[in-house]
Amino acid sequence: MNNKIPRAFIVSDIICFLLLLFFLLALPKTLFKSPTSYVIEASNGHLLSAAIATDGQWRFPVADSVPEKFKKCIIAFEDKRYYQHFGIDFLAMSRAMRQNWKAKNVVSGGSTLSMQVIRLSRKQDRTLWQKLLEVILALRLELKYNKEEIIGLYAANAPFGSNVVGLEAASWRYYGRNAESLSWGEMATLAVLPNSPSLVHPGKNSARLIKKRNDLLDKLVKLRVIDQTTANLSKLEPVPGKPLPLPQHAPHLLNRFKAEGASLGFNATKITSTLNEDIQLKVNGILKRYNNRYRANDINNISALILDAKTGEVVSYVGNIYQPENMALESHVDMIKAPRSPGSTLKPLLYASMLNDGFILPHTLIPDIPTQIAGYSPQNYDLGYDGAIAADKALSRSLNIPAVKMLQQYKYERFYDKLKKLGIGTLNQPADHYGLSLILGGSEVTMWDLTNTYLGMVRTLNHFNTYKGLYNPADYQSANYISNLKSEGNGEERTSHLDHGAIWSTFNAMEEVMRPGDEGLWEQFSSSQRIAWKTGTSFGFRDAWAIGLTPQYVVCVWVGNADGEGRPGLVGIEAAAPVLFDIFRLLPNGKWFEIPITKLKKAKICKQSGYKAGEYCQEAIEELIPTAGEKTIICPFHKRIHLDQTGTYRVNDQCEQVINMQHQNWFILPPAMEYYYKIKNSDYRSLPPFKPGCDMGSNAGTMELIYPKNGASIYIPLEIDGTRGKIVLNAAHRSNNSKIYWHIDNEYVATTANYHQLAVNPAPGKHTLTLVDENGERLVQYFTVLDKEQKK
């Protein structure tokens, strides 16, 4: 018996194996490699914005599903046995061959939709060999993809005339809406276009297009897909003219996705966003209305961001007004991502940090007097002084000097580190670079970082009960703008950047700001929404900010010029705040924050000073304070003084018997604070003078130099006429009618009474300033006058 296998069989086996291998590997892993348009949909699936593909085509990514109307239309028109064959329709091919043979020309085609998908993916001249290869690849396609996937590939890649590829792009370009919403007449029109897109497309040969559409509608009637009435009505519909522009309701978010998509793990160029379409369109309208008004003052740009505090998602993202036809407006710049000076919008973060770390209580008095710190002289917006003001009032009035005083106490290095932990990512210089100006807008922030920081605070407070008093670092993760993009939770921790009590107290202080145009009466209306908010204005009137929050939403508005040009009147309260409240009127009301009762403690607080009440406090009230507030000091401004029997003079045991003294508790501010405080607080009682003949002993604190501070360096500029200017020395004395004798370098200069201000012109160099009152009390301090070279 011969066991040898004939060589012919071996060769035929090898050939069969190679053919099988070719068949299995013939289909490329990715059929279509053409670039697709970037597309952003709203949370409801409606198109918000799209950008043309890099090859100049409007080509949307493959949709998850194909509208039923299109399936029925395209199958009736191109491949009526689509669901019965395996990629090749032999009946259609034989029919086409007979018709073409009789006509001596190509008048009919027998290609199936599967074969057309292959042809669209290969883009090669159709030789006999190529057509044979299409048949093989169509069979292979049917093995790899199901029928729904194949028709989806066809719908996404078929040509629809001009530079429009794919059903979804065609639907928007020709009808201005998504394919699901098209009528039978509109869908039939699109179904006939891929058959001959170069000859028949909207705007040209409309009569032939109408005939093809109507023939298809008649075929649908014969197939009992639609009834005759529907077909007749559909035939009355006009065919589209020139292509329509696509919606551009969120172009800046589209560009953001183009830049960030890969880093977010998205290979596709289409996303369903978290944006609420209705709110996005209305916010666009609000910003456009205000922009039209502000452009009269050459204020060209405006942006807004809305975050959902419950879900941590972006509700509306308007990076700028969108007017690409006017290049001078620079409306292409996404101001939500742009680093800008934050003005005063960081002040609530400092207030919360100081409450959190036990530096102040909510109403602690903060100095508000002329201040010079290492040559830095902050000014309040109104150029006035309160002497002393409660910390929460200083925040609600956005006073600069108290904010600088608070940062000086808290230390700018500590605040710098806190901002970085809270998510401010634009602090790319060392803390010393910013110094105390950090609290007045001396750094840069992005609207994205700023809004997300406040979102983290809102989410932390919202989750007080959810996490049973613990904290989840995930609350400070950036908001998400892509639907169904899950973020990992970090797990609960015992501490956080800011505790519940500090955040709750901060939001209470932010709620007390008077709203623009409301004259403080909004609280009387039950329908008014409770909002904690803050405005900001950068130096030089370059940026106007308003940020507001509720337990449900965080909203931020920026107004200004993308090129950084400042404009008079570009201030937060006037330019940004009205926009903020118009946006909040779009949003539903909800309950206010729950009190984090276990993170607050009842404490006796001195009503006048806001400090913890001591034994000399005249009026103590009980308040809820953050737990860290227990570390704060007892009120330093209430002291026990001794008066004579008439209560007119202060005395001591050297001039009055103790038995004849009256002992009273008195609210005493330092002289410089008292000087301004009593102007605005008529009920403030100055200390009585000492009884004549009483030895006051060492009574430092009767006088205080307001300007210059001890050790200050001063530069005296030239006046307009070229002469050297003067500096104004300013002092405060507890006694209203006292006289102060001024000496510079031990030489008498002048005497002042009541208001102690003196204009002098000392030479460059170090000087000794001596003040002597009529009772002989002395105050000695030092200052240096710089010359021009030292100033440089």
Architecture overview:
This protein has 792 residues and is of the alpha+beta class. The chain contains 22 helices and 24 strands. The strands form eight sheets. A five-stranded antiparallel β-sheet has the order 7-6-12-11-10, with helices on both faces. Helix 13 (347-356) packs antiparallel against helix 19 (500-511). It starts with 6 loop residues before the first helix and ends with a helix.
Give a concise summary.
The chain has 792 residues and is of the alpha+beta class.
Name the overall outline. Answer: elongated
- Largest sheet, spatial ordering of strands: 7-6-12-11-10
Report the C-alpha radius of gyration, rounded.
39 Å
Instruction: Give the overall pLDDT as a whole number.
Output: 86
SS-derived structural category: alpha+beta
Helices and strands, with pairings:
Elements: H1 7-25, E1 38-41, E2 47-51, E3 58-59, H2 68-78, H3 90-103, H4 113-122, H5 128-144, H6 147-157, E4 164-165, H7 167-175, H8 184-192, H9 206-222, H10 228-235, H11 251-260, E5 270-272, H12 277-294, E6 301-308, E7 313-318, H13 347-356, E8 365-368, E9 387-390, H14 391-396, H15 400-410, H16 412-422, H17 431-434, H18 447-462, H19 500-511, E10 532-537, E11 543-549, E12 553-560, H20 572-584, E13 600-606, E14 620-626, E15 638-643, E16 662-667, H21 671-680, E17 703-707, E18 712-715, E19 727-733, E20 739-744, E21 747-753, E22 756-760, E23 765-773, E24 778-786, H22 788-791
Helix pairs in contact: 2-8, 2-9, 4-5, 4-6, 8-9, 9-10, 12-20, 13-15, 13-19
